[in-house]
Amino acid sequence: MSPDDRDGMLRYDQLTTRVYGERRMPQGTRDLILALGWVALRDPRRHDPAAEGQWVRARDVMNASNKTMWQLIADDAPRYEHDWHADPRGCQAPMVRVDRLCGRTAMDMFSECDITTGRFRTWGFCTRPRCQAYGKTVYERAQRSNSTAPEPIPNVGGLLPLFFTWDWEKKYRKAAEVVPTVNAWEPPSYGLSADEWPTVPGEEPVHAFPKLRLIASNGEIVKPPAPVLVHPRSVMT
Fold first, then answer.
1. How many CB atoms lie within 10 A of CB 117?
2. Element (H or E) spanning 215, and its range?
3. What are phi and psi of 24, to 5 degrees?
4. Burial code of 19-53, b = ≥16 C-beta within 10 A, e = fewer?
5. CB atoms within 10 A of CB 210
6. DSSP line for 91-126
7. In angstroms, rounded to a whole number, what is the distance separating the alpha carbons of residues 113 and 147?
8. How far apart are CA 188 and CA 157, in angstroms?
9. Cα gap 233→18, rounded to integer Å
10. Strand pairing of 108-113 and 120-125?
């Protein structure tokens, strides 16, 4: 075994450990990262000058189509997605003599943004006069917070930049074109990498670590002589 093979094996083991240690890693993103790491560090064909580029090779290793590969990138585009299933159901006005919410079918519904995180929650109130009066107060507060709240802090995606340096904004935009979504994707002001986002109370922050550098030519990844481990600060500068 050559020194290069031993180094590649060590670095691939480190990459795999980090991938499986990230509890928020979706299966598709995990498979893509492991495939890219394999073709860059462990693939016996990585030194063959006639072999295809890393991206094409990773696609073949995964037995995936071009559209599937772009879908995986689109799925990792950093963005905020509201958890509608976590919203409370029914009228949310408090009861007077009982320590619980009204709970009747909500007729008037609206959202309220958090003035710190930009994320929002939904409110709903029934037609009872008392519940309507309470809801009016909350609605007026929501109108003020919605007009001053910042851009929401992302809570989805941003994992691929944790592992590989590349022109991710360009790739995310391309993926949004190939795999259209309801809303057009725009890069968040907080950064593309999840380790750049502000920590939200109750969420575990992502820890930065060295990345593999992917080399691109004409929009396609090409095989470099050897992937280079880059410290996150070096990438940012």
1. 18
2. strand 215-217
3. -90, 10
4. beebeebeebbebbbbbbbbbbbebeebeeeeebb
5. 18
6. --PBPSSSSSB--SPP-EEEEEE-TTT--EEEEEE-
7. 9
8. 11
9. 18
10. antiparallel
Block residue for tokens 């809303």: 183
Residuewise pLDDT in 10s, the chain (237 residues): 677 777 778 888 888 988 988 888 899 999 999 999 998 888 888 777 766 788 888 899 999 999 999 999 999 999 999 998 888 889 999 998 889 999 999 999 999 999 999 999 999 999 999 999 999 999 999 999 999 999 999 999 999 998 888 889 999 999 999 988 767 899 999 999 998 899 887 776 666 666 766 644 444 444 444 334 444 444 444
Q: What is the dihedral of CA 213, 219, 221, 224, to 10 degrees?
A: -70
For the entire predicted model, the pTM comes to 0.79
157 φψ region: left (φ > 0), alpha (ψ -120 to 50), beta (else): left
SS3 79: strand
Cβ contacts of 216-223, under 8 Å, gap ≥ 24: 216/166, 216/167, 217/53, 219/174, 220/53, 220/55, 220/56, 221/53, 221/54, 221/55, 221/56, 221/166, 222/53, 222/54, 223/46, 223/51, 223/53, 223/54, 223/57
Cβ atoms 165, 212 nearer than 8 A: yes
